[in-house]
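Hey team,

Sharing the Putative RNA-directed DNA polymerase from transposon BS run so nobody has to redo it. Sequence (1151 residues) first:
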Amino acid sequence: MERPAYTDADRNNFGPGPVHGHTGASAPLTDSDGLTSTDPPRESHGNAGDPDPGPNDTGATNPHTAETNGPTIIGGDVNAHNNSWDIHQPEDAEGHAIEAWATERGLTIANSGQHTRVNPSTGGRSTPDLTLVSGDLAGGAEWETGPGLGSDHLPIYLTLPTINQRPKRKGPGRFRQQKADWEAFRRHLDTEISKWPSHDAPLHQEESRLTGAIITAAKRSIPFGNGGGGKPPFWNESCQEAVDLREGAQSRASTPDHTADDIIAAREARQNATNTINREKTAYVNRQLEEMGADTDLWRTIKILDGRVPPAKPAVPIQRPPTAGQTAPTKAAVTDREKADLFCQTYAAVSRLPKRKQEDHAIKLSSRRAGKTCECGDTKEGFCSPFSRRELQHALSKLKSGKSPGPDMVSNDMLRQLSPTGETELLRRVFQEGLPQGSVMAPLLWLIYCNDLDEDINTNTTRSLYADDTALLATGPSLQACADQLQPDLDQVARWLDKWKVEASPSKCVFTTFSLHAKEVNGKVVPTLTFKGDQLAHEKNPTFLGLTLDSQLTFTNHIEEVKKRMAQRRCCLTALAGRSYGCDQATLRAAYIAYIRSVADYGAALYSTHAAPSVRARLEAEQHKCARVITGCIRLTNSETLITEAGLPPLAWMAKEAGLADLPREPLALVPEQPPWTNPADAVTFRLSLPRVTRRDDPPAVRKAAALEAIAMVNPDCTIWSDGSAKSGTRDGGGGALIQLHRENREVETLVPAGSVCSSMRAELAAMLAAFTCLLAQPGETRSRIKTCLLCTDSLSGLQLLQRGPEAQQLVLAERVWAAMDSLGEQNTAIILQWVPGHADIAGNEAADRLANRAAAECAQSETPIDLASARTAIRQRAREMQATRAHRHPHPQPTPGLQDLPRWGQVTVSQLRTGHCPLARATLHRLELTPDPLCRECGAEDTVRHLLTECPAFATTRRRLWGGPLPSLDEVLSGPAGKIVEYIRRVPAETLVGLQNLLVHLRDVSAENAHLYQYRLWDAKRVKLETAQNRGVSPDVAAGYRDGLRRATNGHPLSAEEVQKVVSRVPAETLVGLQNMLVHLRDVSAENAHLYQYRLWDAKRVKLETAQNRGVSPDGAAGYRDGLRRATNGHPLSAEEVQKVVSRVNQLSS
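Structure output:
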């Protein structure tokens, strides 16, 4: 039997098991049915093995306030001692009180006498954890402790064989569809369906057996996992070794003959295990972030970081109250399925329309007349025809892959992989009435039901119907005039709701006012409006379709809300990368655009054109913060330079800046023009390849021969050569077509404009539509001779778009092409669409190309509407042009090759250098008030980025070794490989010190008080490491030991192991209690860290100032070295002899 365990870490977390009548902090002991829980306990703060608590701290609650009814388990840290459960500590009054209380209530002490805690300081044993069980559970209860889990309390195992425990699962379990064998899935599905009886079954049985067949086939062909299991992903040998050492040390410290050293060793082993696990966690996360990309687990990671998860379902039974004419169910709903069924029953009970015989009589008569005059004439054609397999396959193709399955475990991927037999069975499901829960037909039918809601509304009133939301807008000289216009419309809506038995939601019915008049603005005048007899509430800032409105349409509140949401999501972006770790810039940019910028883009075309520039600047400021996260640049960076470096366009670039505001617009093809039960695709054949495979770089003669061979395979009555052209692929488009009527030995040319804003593919579609339209306009005798029509085009993307079918088109132009082909198909004309290579010296294709160029140049474009896709392309093109213009303001507009191949800290360093503000240069540090002057320590010139990379004579040799030849300019350095720039920075020591020897000399020259101040900086290793890594672009992880670090610190000159040891042994150090501690600290840190400390040691002025502020040390006010050391040692004075001894030791080392 599996034993449920608990530790002291769970003391305030109640599990499903019961806890009654507690006297301390309780813990879940088991998962048992039929037991109830009481109020949570008060936690005891005493420690077993320590002196007894005082009279005001009893360590437990009053036991007489607890009640015990039924099977009961009590567990907790009672901090009381009695020989009945604790033989290691003396008894106390609280222990006797608990024993008496348990005896009165018939509770049995389950403890076996083993200790449950080991004092980490003294090693003393005690049993402060008490477990009580009721008599009906005590017979077979087994109580024992297990090995430690890192706490001073041991885990307790309580086994109750009288309770049927549910098997534990490590996860909900799911199908591993990435490893599915779909061929086997379809084969097993056919086998299961073949076992069904031949007679029809009720709908719910059909659904159940089809779902069961799919699940059975999935279990035989798709691997299934129960989730979880195993060790954490970061776990490795270091973690396991540290945990084993901790367990061994704790075991030795728990023995009766343990020593003080065993206690210390156990404490150190516990801390070492914690540090090791945390270190491996951090390293694992950093590796995952470095390898993360936009096409990997980026979005899953963002979802986890975001933390926006739906609230947990209440784990309580639900009882439906009785309704009119019905009694309430006797059994409460407990499982998810029972609750779902209860919801459906409740919905069905409250959604029945009230019966009104007189009002409903006219509706019934109209319905009967409509049913008798079906347009199909009982032929079951057209709308009345059953769903075809093609419609089903099209619907299944729209399902998104990778989605989680529903409660029945059937996923979208399984439905998309149905066998032909499975599709046939799915088509047999017919709903006579009602709809399945969650069906997409429900909102569609509601749209049809309410479509005539606004028919009798005043024509001067603007209306907006979206799903179940209806908005009415009236304009007038005053707010009262607007109210007078709206009130009759509201009354009309109320009459429509009454007639069609629709209930409105009063709490959601509000009105707002918009005015610029000083006497009416901001709700100064609120007219009265009523709806169904109730007065409507006035809302100053309503939210309509996601936009927060205000009385003057300044959108200030909306922009503040958008800014707040962007700031919240920026926290996730910050967690993905720092200045020395994390994702690369391309991944961060993709995450920002899709996850953060999308919040600002929603409705931006509306609110950004009305909001004041000062208000829009708030969003720009938020984007600048995100750009600093992406690039790692500092605050000194110019805003335009920062945005350009991050590759982001400003938020102010809207569609009106692309010159599209005054152009006619083409409606979206939201609803297909052809009904889904028609099938014009039967008369159309797509041929997107040639008999012989060709490549674009093949000679024109080879591609021409392959195209002519494909054309020769068809004997058409009519051949159409079509082509489209658009300048730069985005504007002034035109289409041309050459129609060859072989039966009449004549040709027809047609030209058509594609619009001043269009894409090349749109121009190609316009040419096809013009050709088919011209063909349909021919005389009837000519059309009757055309049995086969061959259209040849070099637009492969256009043919691929049309091949999706008429119902999948979102462009009106593509739908019209399909409608034209459908019209030709109705005249018994077969259509073949053949792709041919372009610019292959094919006569017909070249002629169509010339016609397209003529159309683009000669046809009037102003009246041709633009579609959404072309508008998007034009906006993107315009944004690229504007961004290219702004890029010239960048200090270095040309990209640096290899930047994306660098690790995160390298990308940040190069970006900082490119923007001209990098903490590697003392001029930048001086502007940040981190250094007293901006001068280079080597040559005395101003230490700018240009000086650091190209001008400082101290590093001319390093530059010549890396770039060779004459010394490069700044543009040549930043235009070269990014890896060379990083290598150059690595070879240049921090603060331009020439090697580690300068550091040693500097330490010898400073006074004792200054040495103490430096020691503070050295002691604060974590802060120094973080600050320097961010400001210097130095990655401590790249150091390969102390020796390599010293090699970098000495300007590229390697040191032998003996020299390294010799240098380290000579470092003079002044610490709180002597000289040795700092030397030990330097030996323990990595080489790269020692190199980082060097930068902090050099900045003596700042160190002295900060230490005086942070540590309270004032060197100027100190009365000698003795007073300074007194402060440094937390107020403990040193004798004159001790001070002299320390000073002598410093002088001895310095000499």
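The chain has 42 helices and 25 strands.

Ping me if you want the raw files.
A.
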